[in-house]
Every structure is written in C-alpha cells, then in structure tokens.
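Researcher: Please translate sequence to structure tokens.
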Amino acid sequence: MERTLVLLKPDAVQRLLVGRILQRFEEKGLRLAGLRMLLLPEADARRLYEPHVGKPFYEGLVRFMTASPIVALALEGKNAIGICRKLLGATFGSKAEPGTIRGDFGVSDSFNLVHGSDSPESAARELPIFFGPRDLVAWEPRILPWVYDLPAEFPRG
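Model: Translation complete:
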C-alpha cells in the first residue's frame, strides 16, 4: 500500500468543504492514516514548496498557505498517489473536469483548493512536514477485501 499527503488549502477550509472533500477520498477506497488541522508556519510552507523557489508565484503561494488554517491528510491505499491526483483534477478549477474535486468545487485560476504529492519521492519529503511517526496510524478496515482485489477470503456476514 502507498501513502501520500493531501492538503486542503485555506480556500477549501474557508469555503467549508473539508468534509465533502475528505468524503471523496474515503468513498474511493482510500483510508486515513493521519488528519490534522493547523495554521501552517511560514518556515513549513517554504519547505513544502521549496521546489518552486524562484518561480513568480512562490511568494504569493507561501502567503496564501499561511493566511488561514489548512487540513493535512495522510492517505493510504493501493496506488494512493495516482488515485489522489486523478481525484484532485487539473491544477485550476476552470480547466478541471467535472467529477474531480477541483472541477466540482473550483473556478479560480489562483486558488486551487488542494495540494497532493505528485510522486513517491514528494510524498516521502512532504509527509514529515506535517506528521511525525506517532501521528500516523496503521490500520486495516474490515472492508478492505471488498475494496481491493486482495488475495483473502471474503468476510462473512
């Protein structure tokens, strides 16, 4: 199973979309390993977006991410990174397909509601910014054989 980071950015929190967005991931079959609401310190925002240092949008992005609470999710599942990226949709809501989070909830070409790790390497770098080892819970819901094609007996009942 793969683990990834998804952030519900200040616009998602301010628009009261946290529950609806989280529901999308759970309904798809991903499971929560960690959940945290916080005001992102500037140093952590800079660390998160370090690959974008020097780009024209970098400073504005740091200001945006530290302006209001965010919600950090550690999600797990088979191909979790790829599945999350598809659920998020294109970077900006005006270009995102209906049925995706950004396509259904976003219209802005500046604010894009969510951040998701784009590779296993990014997830490995980003997750520790938000979660320590004691903050992540490894567990398996009883419905797992019904969600994934796992080689196990189907549960009775």
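Researcher: Any highlights?
Model: The mean pLDDT is 93.
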